[in-house]
Task: structure prediction
Amino acid sequence: MPPRRSYDQYCSAARALDVVGDRWTLLIVRELLAGPRRYTDLHADLPGVSTDVLASRLKDMERDGLATRRRLPPPGAAYVYELTPRGRELLPVLQALGAWGQAELGERRPTDAVRAHWFALPLLRALEGEGLVEVRLDEGRFHVHAGAVEGPVYGDGPAPRDPAAVLTLDTATCVALSRGEVPLAEAIRAGRVEVTGDSPLAKQLREA
Result:
């Protein structure tokens, strides 16, 4: 494997960009925050990345201690990639970058791809408390693990077990939340987000 390129600057920001500054790396981290993913799943949820570039970035991430590759036991018998604890530490970096980028979203362009679970990180920023939350959109479902300190941060599809709360909203409201145009509590009070569930988290969301 060729040596990693470097800015050759004695600065922690430059050193960080040596590791995660290449195109696609942070978006691969975004996908792996959902837990172990197969190469084919990563490629499907990163429209626009070539197979060569994806393979190269994953190798770089393994070399730099951000991700590992392992084989699932039978009957799966497939290889998956997952974040190391060091890689998971990039969650607040992505959250901060996403908050900064809210102003750049604007209207969705005809060429823009979208996946329902891409709304998970913006919504996670708006959630306070801890618990499993299922989100139901026009375009699909995903779930987030609010307050989780280890393991997956979110996942595509319905919650894997009974969620602490279920949020039902339309895509336009979810986009408005992602852009920072409306706070979650305000959207709930206005009836744009329906909260169901009897857990303390669900009650907290309804009373916010």
Notes: Residues 51-63 form the longest helix (13 residues). The chain is about 40% helix and 20% strand. The mean pLDDT is 94. The CA atoms of residues 43 and 49 lie 7 Å apart.
